[in-house]
Amino acid sequence: MPRIDDDDELSALRRRAYAPGADIADDPEALQRLIELESRDGSSSTSDVVAAPSEVESAPVDAIGEEEPTPVPDPPRRKFRMPHLRRSTTILLAAAALVVVCAGTALVLVQRVQTDPLQVGATQIARLTPDPDFRPPSSFTQGVSSGVTSFAEFQGFRVAVYASFDTGEGASRCMTVWQPALLQELGNGTSYDGRYLLPSCGAGVFPPSATLLLSEGSPELRNGDLPAGTALQFVYDAANDEVVVFEG
């Protein structure tokens, strides 16, 4: 049996003999060494596969004319195999794909979250969608014939957004924040038994907003479950037609 060093040499010589671009036919000594190692290994004779140039050159002319030399077969073609991925590599690829998916989802979700522009520690706690079944008091939108939108209830509060009374070009929208439970319609107007009935109009790029503090004794505390001392801000998000509620 060949030694380990011989095995390495045999492998190298076989590559020179059988691999694409084989050049052992131009090296008689290497060819002879290959034949010697293969005979030790019990392999078939290499002389049946590759003919040494010296043997062809030394053959008589008549012999060459009588019998054609044994054709040299093409070296075997290597089959292409897909690389085998280790388990750790597969896990890393799956994790990378998950990160990409999560990042894409996060970009979509972040667009729905308003940032705290003044970095005062406010937190978005709700987004109120339009509620077509609720109608605000007519006194809130007197003189406005269209474009009135009411929004879902939040902690007893309602928000109505409507066109500005200013009919100039680029006029911003207005809104009112109140608690219907504390509002009474009178014959000549309205009566509000709470502390906060807040109208507001936007200006330029600034949306309409209303800010309040539910302090001890505020009647509005009775119609929700927020603790005393809670500060709230209602901001109209025109791009999504929603009212964003912040807590501070």
Beta-sheet strand percentage?
A: 15-25%
Low-pLDDT ranges: 44-59, 61-65, 105-111
Rounded radius of gyration (Å): 44 Å
Determine the oligomeric state from the structure. single chain
String of helices and strands = HHHHHEEEEEEEEEE
Report the biggest beta sheet as strand number plus sense, adding barrel if it closes: 4 strands, antiparallel
What is the averaged pLDDT score? 76
What is the 3D form?
rod-shaped
What would you say about this model in short?
By secondary structure, the chain is α+β, with helices and mostly antiparallel strands. Helix content is 26%, strand content 20%. Helix 1 crosses helix 2 (28-41).
Give an overview of the whole structure.
This protein is an alpha+beta fold and 248 residues long. It has three domains: 4-66, no CATH class; 82-111; 114-247, no CATH class. The protein contains five helices and ten strands. The protein has helices at residues 4-18, 28-41, 53-58, 61-66, 87-110; strands at 123-128, 149-150, 158-162, 174-178, 183-186, 189-192, 198-201, 209-214, 230-237, 242-247. Strands 1-10-9-8 form a four-stranded antiparallel beta sheet, with no helix packed on it. The protein has a four-stranded antiparallel beta sheet with strand order 2-3-4-7, with no helix packed on it. It has a two-stranded antiparallel ribbon with strand order 5-6. It is rod-shaped and about 125 Å long.
